[in-house]
Design a protein that fits this description.
Blueprint: H1 16-22, H2 32-39, H3 49-53, H4 60-68, H5 72-82, H6 86-92, H7 105-109, H8 115-128, E1 144-148, H9 152-163, E2 167-171, H10 180-183, H11 194-203, E3 208-211, H12 219-228, E4 231-234, E5 240-241, E6 254-256, H13 257-266, E7 278-283, H14 286-297, E8 302-307, H15 318-325, E9 329-333, E10 335-342, E11 347-358, E12 361-372, E13 375-379, E14 382-383, E15 396-397, E16 400-401, E17 414-416, H16 428-447
Parallel strand pairs: 1-2, 1-4, 2-3, 4-17, 6-13, 7-8, 7-13, 8-9
Antiparallel strand pairs: 5-14, 10-11, 11-12, 15-16
Length: 468
């Protein structure tokens, strides 16, 4: 087939039942009987390794024991005390690399207790039950905290601060709150409107106001927030996608994978989204996996994930890679994109340079490979976004905000957490822990203030220095 005949981007490639099946919940809720049987496998270890492996420190043996006893409300409370977004994390957390990887049942039986699915069972059912709320706002402290970003870090920070009696206002750039949970996860991982239902539950505590369609863009906005509130938390995520920096990148058919996933998340009918017949995804992380699998589910005949290194270096977990392969996604390694080829303003192919390791470096082998495609998704990572941080005296480290062990930035009275900060693995569960850690630090800071004193002295100097 000629490269000039390859372009075929259109919606409604499949039958309705194919879309219904493909975008259904990837891991349906356990039945009561299944949950009880799985809970009985837990040995309720003392000083359990699964607790230490969880970034939020969920007391796994305790919540599983409560499931076995039929106490779902108690199990959910154990989970949510440590992780207020425990329902989402149960769906998307790489438990196979964290808590389940150290389960003692792996050595005994070859497979761990299904901690993630048990966590979802407990939280989903408990939150759906009528009755008194699990959490209520603490006595009003008279202190006001601003949070920028209504993603996992910001929401976790807000929830704990509300429990402690502080008034919280969250400013978010999107029309809907939830951040990654609402816009950035594969549809089959977070079906329906679950992100919004979890958000509604979280806001039931009271004392949390959300202002949508508000974007932090200038140093003056940052200064105003510091002036008007007693403390400020930045959970702004990563808003800009890296460019490939090669010819043809602006051709129609070349898209950022994160935008593609967001479109799927917000679509009333996924079948109406156009998809190419031959799709190439450049990248090797979870975003690449999610984009590639969903392209296949939309009806793309051929989908390839192309990564510049070997499979052992891919950021995506082995479980996610296997998930993609069983759904028809092809993996190609040691290929770096060199040119996006177009014809009559249409994407028709991508040329890659073959690479190999030599003395610790990636070097060109002298061979090229050209893949026909009519859609290309870039999933090569994101960056902080608007360049206001240096002007605001916020220290950066490798292009992200620099924070200390408590989440404090270089500006007094300003904390940060989640993907926008240097360090960590860009996991939802780690963003939640960042938000909790910062909330505890903020609360200590506010408690130490004299009555009537401002949270941020107007002439306070930076506490961290930027790295060169």
């Amino acid at each position: 087939m000629s490269l000039l005949d390859v372009s075929d981007i259109r919606p409604f490639r499949l039958k309705k039942e194919d879309y219904d099946e493909g975008f259904a919940d990837a891991a349906p809720l356990l039945t009561k009987g299944q949950a009880l049987l799985e809970a009985e496998r837990c040995l309720y270890c003392y000083d359990a390794p699964c607790v230490h492996a969880c970034p939020t420190g969920i007391d796994v043996p305790t919540f599983i024991h409560r499931i076995a006893d039929g106490n779902l409300r108690g199990a959910a409370r154990t989970i949510l005390d440590a992780n207020p977004l425990g329902a989402t994390c149960a769906r998307v957390c790489p438990t196979e690399e964290l808590c389940e990887s150290v389960c003692v049942r792996v050595k005994q039986e070859g497979r761990p207790v299904e901690i993630g699915r048990l966590q979802r069972f407990a939280v989903d059912l408990a939150l759906a039950q009528a009755g008194a709320p699990l959490y209520v706002r603490g006595a009003d402290s008279g202190r006001r905290v601003a949070i920028v970003g209504a993603g996992p870090a910001g929401l976790a920070c807000a929830h704990l601060l509300a429990r402690l009696g502080h008034a919280v206002t969250i400013f978010d750039a999107r029309p809907k709150s939830g951040g990654l949970n609402e816009y950035g996860l594969a549809t089959y991982k977070m079906t329906g409107d679950y992100a919004q239902r979890e958000l509604a539950w979280l806001l039931e505590i009271g004392g949390i106001e959300i202002v949508n369609d508000w974007r932090l863009q200038t140093p003056e906005q940052l200064a105003a927030l510091r002036h008007d509130y007693d403390a400020l938390f930045l959970g702004i995520g990563l808003s800009s996608v890296h460019r490939l920096g090669i010819p043809g990148e602006d051709l129609p058919g070349v898209r950022d994978a994160v935008d593609f996933i967001a479109d799927l998340r917000q679509a009333d009918n996924v079948a109406a989204l156009p998809i190419g017949r031959r799709v190439v995804v450049v990248g090797g992380g979870m975003t690449a996996i999610d984009a590639a699998v969903q392209a296949r589910l939309l009806g793309a005949e051929s989908v390839s994930i192309v990564y510049r290194r070997g499979p052992e270096s891919m950021p995506a977990s082995s479980v996610e890679r296997e998930w993609a392969q069983t759904r028809g996604v092809n993996f190609l390694h040691w290929l770096a994109p060199e040119e996006i080829i177009g014809h009559r303003d249409r994407l028709v192919a991508v040329r890659f340079a073959r690479q190999r390791h030599e003395n610790g470096d990636l070097v060109y082998t002298g061979e090229d490979e050209t893949l026909p495609c009519d859609m290309l998704f870039k999933a090569i990572g994101q960056r902080l976004g608007p360049e206001i941080w240096t002007a605001s005296e916020l220290a950066l480290e490798r292009g992200r905000l620099k924070v200390d062990a408590e989440g404090r930035t270089s500006l007094p009275g300003v904390w940060a957490g989640g993907d926008c900060c240097h360090g960590g693995r860009d996991l939802t569960v780690e963003a939640v822990e960042d938000g909790k850690r910062a909330a505890r630090s903020i609360a200590s800071h506010l408690a130490a203030l004299e009555p009537g004193a401002r949270g941020v002295p107007p002439d306070a100097a930076p506490t961290l220095k930027a790295e060169s």
